[in-house]
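debug: dumping io for the single-chain case to check the tokenizer round-trip. Nothing else runs in this session.
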Amino acid sequence: MTLEALHTQFLQHPHVCTDSRKIVPDSLFFALKGPNFNANKFAADALEQGAAIAIIDDAEYAVSDRYILVKDVLQTLQALARYHRQQNKAQVIALTGSNGKTTTKELMHAVLSKKYNTIATEGNLNNHIGVPLTLLRITADTEMAVVEMGANHLKEIEFLCSLAEPDFGYITNFGKAHLEGFGSEEGVIKAKSELYEYLLEHDKYVFLNADDPIQKEKLGTYIKKFGYSTEDHQYFTIKWLGADPFVRLEVEGTEVNTHLIGQYNYLNAAAAVLLGKYFNVPIPDIKSALEAYVPKNNRSQVVIKNGLTILLDAYNANPTSMKVALENLGQQSKKPTIAILGDMFELGEAAAREHQEVSELIDILDIDEGYLIGVNFNSVQTDHWQFETFEEFCEHLEGDPIKVGTVLIKGSRGMALERVVDLL
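debug: decoded output
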């Protein structure tokens, strides 16, 4: 079957499923393969659950005309997504960076939706499978598509750009994330900059944080750019008003009071403001969109419980996001300030050094108390509490509970530190 013919089938059944346990009636089921699974085996189940057609790449399962046999299901899904994107008029905004991608994407979606029919990546489906699934949600009515792109190795952003063919792009920052895959901070910068390379090569528009020296240097004298700054009046001015605990900013004389914590979230909100300004969303609508957004899924949430102000930022962590979260904790007025931190993953040979530096930052920032959980944090030299396992920490907390103050909870996803909230 040709790509054009498959696209015709998709338009007749415009919902794509890749999990036979979550079939939407009259959808297309793509039988993806992975290291530990072969969804071709579940194609028949998908059809029984209501899928219209199953796309497979194993001939032995093609037992009726409801199966489409292709050479490689993943490559077919990606090619279909690229082709579908090319057939629609939606403007695609690509978004990547080391930290803040998902929050920034949600804020951009909220702002742009005030004026345009807008879709955005669902959750953090930002990889070689998630990006195609996002592109296939574009319809003839879609005006804007905010597409989040993640990466843990070189050339990944380059490939995702070849699928999404973005008209615009924004990089949140360049931080110490996935060092195991990128090898170094220089590797991170090179990988994320693949988005810039695509945009500049294709004469597309770039949004930037003009206070970030790396972004300014990378874009140089490139003409098609629109940036924001707190001080440089060559760019659109967005004033930082503080965060205790919530971020406040000012846009053209209008104060915006968000439900976001930390100066790092000012940057995420400012990016959404910048897009709103460029695409002529009225300032009052930008304000209402940002003020209505409430973080969830353990990302920059504020939880008030038993006299404690809990800064719940436990979705994930890397050295850069740890640093800014601790800096924000150190600026909070409700004392004492307490950091409950879990191990950071995917740091490779840098793990010992980076965990030591984070532990030392607790003292540098005059944070009152630290609880460090995990194998890596248990190995650092520090005067703060250390626990090799979460269970050891729980046992300690039962005998010596935290009763007052501002508490930051942050660690990599595998640490699941959101469990701490129930203990406080």
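debug: round-trip ok. The chain has a mean pLDDT of 93.
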